[in-house]
Design goal:
Strand order of the largest sheet: 2-1-3-4
Helix content: 25-40%
Order of helices and strands: HEHEEEHH
Number of strands: 4
Distance between the termini: 55 Å
Amino acid sequence: MQSQSLQFLHEMGVDYYQLQHPQRLAGYQAPGLSLEPSCRLLLVAPQCPSGAEAKLFERVLGSIKLNLSDARHILPAQLSSLTDHQLEWVWFAGCEADIEFNANVLTSPALDLIDGNQQHRRALWQQICTYQK
């Protein structure tokens, strides 16, 4: 890394580390992320829903006959470590759907942008309806 970039990081209070022996990590694979068999919907979003967003999330779950115990949240960066699953639904909220799933896939803006926005709510509902025929 260039010294000017290192100086900027230092001024911002950000520590910078560089591996001395990167070859020691050759072949290392991070452990996979496994979901419980009871997980039927996976919410992939930059933030876990809370407050009004959690209430909206619960209402959407109810519309597809699921409850909170049937759902899990992960960050988009965790998606690549997901192992085998039995998912029926994957909902990408506020992030790109860059991995294909053998499940019903929903895409929407972030939950905080859906609540109170009729256009976003309608678009989400139309996606749900296409799977419930």
